[in-house]
Amino acid sequence: MKAVTVSGQVCMAGRPLFAPLTLQLRPGSWTSLLGPSGVGKSTLLRLIADLPIGGTFQGRVENRVPLALMAQDPALLPWLTVRQNAALGARLRGERPDQARLASILEETGLAGHGARYPPELSGGQCQRVALARVLMEDRPLILLDEPFSALDARMRLMMQDLAAGLLKGRTVLMVTHDPAEAARLSDHIFVLTETGLTGLPPPQSQPPRLPGDAATLACQAALLAQLITEGMMP
Ligand SMILES: Nc1ncnc2c1ncn2[C@@H]1O[C@H](COP(=O)(O)OP(=O)(O)OP(=O)(O)O)[C@@H](O)[C@H]1O
Q1: Distance between terminal CA atoms of the chain?
Q2: Where is each ABC transporter domain found (predicted)?
Q3: Which residues contact 207 (CB under 8 A, 6 or more apart)?
Q4: DSSP secondary-structure letter at 149?
Q5: Are residues 53 and 28 in the same domain?
Q6: Looking at residue 29, what is its pLDDT?
């Protein structure tokens, strides 16, 4: 698999969001993208997913591969059970879901006992697990995550990070996040996007997921915070 690469520039209402850039997603690695609100992180994700953006794109996306997208809003259908929501992709394509695979993924995501429940009966963390189960059911080589854990409490966020890191290992992942600690724990590659373009920062050398209190992880988190403050994201 070649690196999925997006290069170019986006204009919203005739004004460039950021300077021309190139973002390469190395196969089988986890890339995190941080940056100030409104700079265009989700727009980059949408370009890679070939979804409409509000502006114009001058550039190209190379080496596209099938992908699955998971966002902060788990986008579950409240009238479908956990099991049906997890298998929604197949259902929408008019296919019969692979029941053995579904059972195994519900087990892996800690939902085995919840298959017959409905989303309004679930906690926020459980809903995100269903969204992750749905992504795994789709079995795509590229996974796009748009602030997937930002609505969760700190403990649940750590648990979901560990779960996602384990279950998405070996896939190419691009995650948009506002959380330097999350990027430091999970990433093989980290970029900060600003109006002037992309800046790469080195992640810790150890394998993700890293312990949140690990010295190298904390140092990476601090470097990211410093970079974001320099770029005017934080007071
Ligand atoms: N459909 C649209 N129509 C017009 N403008 C849009 C549209 N979608 C996004 N924008 C604008 O494009 C800019 C980039 O939006 P985008 O959602 O990519 O930013 P972001 O970096 O992901 O922000 P955040 O961190 O707040 O989610 C913003 O100024 C936003 O208002």
Answers
A1: 41
A2: 1-220
A3: none
A4: T
A5: yes
A6: 97
Domain count across the chain: 2
Residue 235 confidence (pLDDT) above 50: no
Tell me the CATH number at 233. Answer: 3.40.50.300
List the domain range (segments joined by +) for residue 92.
Answer: 74-139
User: In this structure, which residue's CA is closest to atom 29 in ligand 1?
Assistant: 38
Contacts of 113 (CB under 8 A, 6+ apart): none
Indicate if the pLDDT at residue 233 is higher than 70: no
Dihedral sign (CA 30, 36, 42, 47):
negative
Kindly give the number of the ligand 1 atom that is closest to the alpha carbon of 46: 18
Give the helix/strand (H/E) hosting 41.
helix 41-48
Q: What is the pTM of this model?
A: 0.93
Residues with Cβ within 8 Å of 105's Cβ and at least 6 positions away in sequence, in order, are 86, 133, 136, 137
Q: What is the Å distance from ligand 1's center to 42 Cα? A: 7
Same domain as 164, residue 133: no
Q: Both 155 and 205 in a single domain? A: yes
Question: Mean pLDDT for the chain?
Answer: 93
The encoded tokens of residue 121 equal 């009966």
SS3 34: strand
Say whether both 157 and 231 belong to one domain.
yes
Atom 1 of ligand 1: nearest residue by CA position = 54
What pLDDT, on the 0 to 100 scale, is given for residue 1? 79
β-pairing, 21-25 with 4-12?
A: antiparallel
Average pLDDT estimate for 125-133: 93
